[in-house]
Fold this protein.
Amino acid sequence: MDVVGLGYCSLDYLGIVPGRPEFDVETMSLSDFAKSGGGPVSTALVALARLGARTGYIGVLGEDEGGAFLREEFEREGVDLGRLRVQAGARSQICMVLVEAGTGRRSILCYRAAGELVLDEADRTYISSARYLHLDGHHMSAAITAARWARADGVKVSFDANRPRPRLDELLPLVDVLIASERFPPAYTGQRDQVRAGRSLLELGPETVVITLGAEGCLCLWGDQVIPVPAFQVDVVDTTGAGDAFHGAFLYGLLQGWELKRTAIFANAVAAINCTRLGGRAGLPTLAEVEAFLSEPGLDKS
């Protein structure tokens, strides 16, 4: 394996709406709708698979129609499911996503159903076969155990930090690559300035900290270096999965041994392309599509 992911997977139902609906008001029409797999780690794994990496998923799904859909999507994308748990009688995670027309902003409602993940020695063997272990903070006890195994067995650990969670003080010292949403560093460190917050996160153990900034691109920190990398301008349909796509693409660049700025430019490109389609995975590009995007005349790749 190149990357084994342990974390959240959901079935997403998405619809484009003209604005935020109100209760007990006239019915609002959808201009488009879609059904897609979602979840931070699981979508990052699909992004990696589309780019050509070998990926595997550790997680829990229910034995229901949603779980069957998600398994079939993983298999179609080439994500290995050798350590997937299917919980009898349980319902899979569901997210309802309202996407604002014209901006791609979202309101997300989640039903979290499938049970807790308990690891065994077969999972350790599976994780140890990979170059990276990717986590999103779900199934936290299992995530911490998996990160400890990875560290002991020479596997790098990456973490998708989207909000403060219990027991992060145990997990972060085990993380090599921390990729955080713009809300996480200030919320977790108490530092409002992103650079100061990023440096505070570096002091906790990660070798590299990347802060995604939406339409502003991202900020990369390692050692005493701070490099801002601007985003690409595209016609945004839906921002669902943009961060997850970025994480997968960033890991792809690390797998290739690229220097950090090139990796961030590549990840920004993958995230931008994904925003041009409705759904967290519909717009995930192949490597050839990313290369074509980056070679377009007049595209600013500074």
